[in-house]
């Protein structure tokens, strides 16, 4: 691991949460010559900077739940000195369900508890007494996850980057990867808008563009689709103190809302597929948010919106992240398809990536479940 300035052990494409976490865990394992390349002027400009920023240790997709549980442990108890401020505010998550989904979820609860998740089952009445603004006809019951809540994404992202850089990793913004060099079936480096670098590993952490990055080499074995999600912020109506509220998600009618910077934030949980881009919110997403708020919590419908934005959540066809070496190109490592859980799972995914790159194996999970080879 004694490269020169243009010769790296690993080049990471993308300084979102995925690339930053991989840099941190690789540096932790002793890799020194790491270069993170980011096309934008700053890290976290795309999905990472636009998320709802919560840890929710509940998921219908089991391999994602497993990563969330591992991520939760790190967020609650990061290594000493890792961050300057707490990473997680345990403000709670309240998830409402109706009909057959509620019955299905109730059957999952013993399993969740066995996995170590603190979870309370609330009936309609208990839910309304905790969150009086919700109308009971929209749900049969709810799960309360009291130890989950809001993640300080900025703190997490910059702590990964700060720690990685303290161990020698370099970060270059304003530098776009435009080509990948492959020699004798193995990645040998990248070409960027400003130059060329050689390396042992190329880590594809390009978020919504991860499929495009692989296409620089040839047809991609993994089909990734970005999906737009809209968020709006607004002021709560007079007399409502929302600061201590949990995030409230209605999974049967696609809506969530939570406290945000003194006001409230809400999303209609839209997922419109689209090509990778600098996503912008559309009026339909905003209108849907208001319609659903009117059904679930009419008191919250605001007179005006303070702010709106959109970001891309990028999924593989089976909704499971793609972490592992490409089945056709040695030295090309996938760290993509983070979907709607890339922040909360980053401590697990970054560590798994570092394990696989450094040793070719990991004790954390069954790596085959996340491997890009599963699409062959
Ligand atoms: C509205 C919304 C709400 C969400 N809520 C949550 C939540 O509550 N909890 C949670 O855990 N997750 C949530 N997510 C998901 C989470 O934000 C993503 O899974 C995560 O940020 C993905 O991180 P990433 O690093 O893979 O992608 P990104 O943050 O998009 O980073 C990829 C980077 O690669 C760079 N790049 C691309 N191509 C190139 C190139 N050729 N050269 C150089 N750089 C390049 C891009 O500029 C970008 O900065 C949410 C997402 C959205 C949109």
Description of the structure:
With 376 residues, the protein is of the alpha+beta class. The chain folds into 2 domains: 7-49 and 154-223 and 317-375, FAD/NAD(P)-binding domain; 93-146 and 225-313, D-Amino Acid Oxidase, Chain A, domain 2 (2-Layer Sandwich), CATH 3.30.9. The protein is built from 8 helices and 20 strands. Strands 5, 6, 7, 13, 14, 15, 16, 17 and 18 form a 9-stranded mixed β-sheet that branches. Helix 1 runs parallel beside helix 5 (153-166), helix 1 crosses helix 8 and helix 2 (62-76) packs across helix 8. The longest helix is centred in the first third of the chain and has 15 residues, at 62-76. The chain is globular and about 65 Å long. Bound molecules: flavin-adenine dinucleotide (FAD). Residues 13-19, 37-40, 45-48, 50-54, 176-177, 205-209, 213, 229, 231, 311-313, 338-344 line the site of flavin-adenine dinucleotide.
Protein topology:
Elements lengths: L6 E7 L3 H12 L5 E4 L16 E2 L6 H15 L11 E2 L3 E5 L2 H15 L5 E4 H7 L10 E5 L3 E3 L1 H14 L3 E3 L4 E7 L2 E7 L3 E9 L5 H6 L9 E10 L12 E4 L4 E6 L2 E5 L4 E2 L9 H14 L10 E9 L6 E4 L6 E5 L9 H14 L17
Parallel strand pairs: 1-2, 1-12, 2-9, 5-14, 12-20
Antiparallel strand pairs: 3-8, 4-8, 5-7, 6-7, 10-11, 11-12, 13-16, 13-17, 13-18, 14-15, 15-16, 19-20
Helix pairs in contact: 1-5, 1-8, 2-8
Bound molecules: flavin-adenine dinucleotide.
Flavin-adenine dinucleotide (FAD) binds next to helix 1, strand 13 and strand 18.
